[in-house]
Amino acid sequence: MKTTIQHVAKHEGQEVTIGAWLENKRSSGKIAFLQLRDGTGFMQAVVAKNSVDEEVFKLAKTLNQESSIYITGTIVEDKRSPLGFEMQVKHIDLIQEAVDYPITPKEHGTEFLMDHRHLWLRSKRQHAVMKIRSEIIQATYRFFSDHDFMKVDPPILTGASAEDTTELFHVEYFDEEAYLSQSGQLYLEAAAMALGKVFSFGPTFRAEKSKTRRHLIEFWMMEPEMAFVEHEESLQIQEEYVSFLVKSILDNCQQELQVLNRDISKLEKITAPFPKITYKEAIQLLKDKGFTDIEWGDDFGAPHETAIAENYDKPVFITNWPKDIKAFYMQPHPEEPELVLCADLIAPEGYGEIIGGSERIHDYELMKKRYEEHQLSGPAYEWYLELRKYGSVPHSGFGLGLERTVAWIAGVEHVRETIPFPRLLNRLYP
Questions:
Q1: Ranges for the Aminoacyl-transfer RNA synthetases class-II family profile domain (predicted)?
Q2: Which ranges of 253-291 would DSSP assign to H, the alpha helix?
């Protein structure tokens, strides 16, 4: 019977065959211990000399790291194993013998590992991070499906920018200029006017020349957009969504969290509601913490976000930002028009902003005024203005950066480990 490591618990006492790679091995006299991986998990296989043919035991003793095999044996309980089971081996078929595998159990430098990212992904730590990433994606689909959102796919090639065109990748689109998308938001607003509540999940691109541990050139965004939803309701949806993601990881990725040595007591505190402070209060908090050079109208960098987050054991919303440092489409605060109804959600433990969101301007004349202020014109933007002419309604949306969220929940220091093949300022391969 053929199975996978993930499902061995269903086959206790049965003889099964698993296609696997040899992660590592050790031997002690008449017993060889093979550490296997098959993509679904990791387990130990025990080869006893007196239980197998001579050539099988010889093969077990001489197998090289990352050699591929079909291995057959009986699944037995092993309470010492993280998996809870191991295999008592009967037979091994060698598929391909690996020779001089470059990533050995010794320490390797980051640049070496990044140059061999296509192989580094095979390690137990990277497997755990990718499993958590996958679970967050699956949980996202469950959450939005349960809340009656429809999945919509905005274009990656666009003629318009949602924010600053200086950070866009310009491409030739036949005889005109186009950009790689930095956000699907503008198109999702159009979809929300047709379908009510929508979300997208896809790649975004920022030509930002940053080398920090929080930045990637290509990253993935979850972007919901909601008709008839105003700012405060949007904040509630955001905190429910993030709480749902964390709970999904706690429920389904305990083994991966253990591999990463993640302190789950910190994750267990992540439940809605989340604390909220205004931008004005954040400025004062930073001044009180010794950031004497921070002034009204300044944006926050990583040190500022970390200092704010230190006051909380949950993500914290920073609301009501100055209009002049936020995007043109944000709805003004009804009582303080120099502010906009928006919020950044800052993760605890120094991981920075994971969500940015706002209520969008729905009034045609106000949006037209914003167009004039920002010198937006032409067919690339006219369709977006036109949304305000035909049955416009209050609506809100937000974007969650997948890689920063994975880094925070998994407790990984750098976002380069949270995407299979990271694109960094000086790295376009592998």
A1: 130-430
A2: 254-259, 264-267, 279-288
Query: 351, 408 in Cβ contact below 8 A?
Result: yes
User: CA 349, 352, 355, 359 torsion: positive or negative?
Assistant: positive
- Position 113 pLDDT exceeds 90: yes
Q: Which position has the token pair 């995407």? A: 419
Specify the DSSP element, H or E, that contains 55.
helix 54-62
Is pLDDT above 80 for 161?
A: no
204-244 per-position pLDDT tens digit: 999 988 888 888 999 999 999 999 999 999 999 999 999 99
User: Which domains are present in the chain?
Assistant: 5-96 (2.40.50.140), 117-417 (3.30.930.10)
CB–CB of 197/227 below 8 Å? Answer: yes
pTM: 0.95
- Say how far apart CA 83 and CA 55 lie, in whole Å: 28
On the question of a cis peptide bond just before residue 82, with omega within 30 degrees of 0, the verdict is no
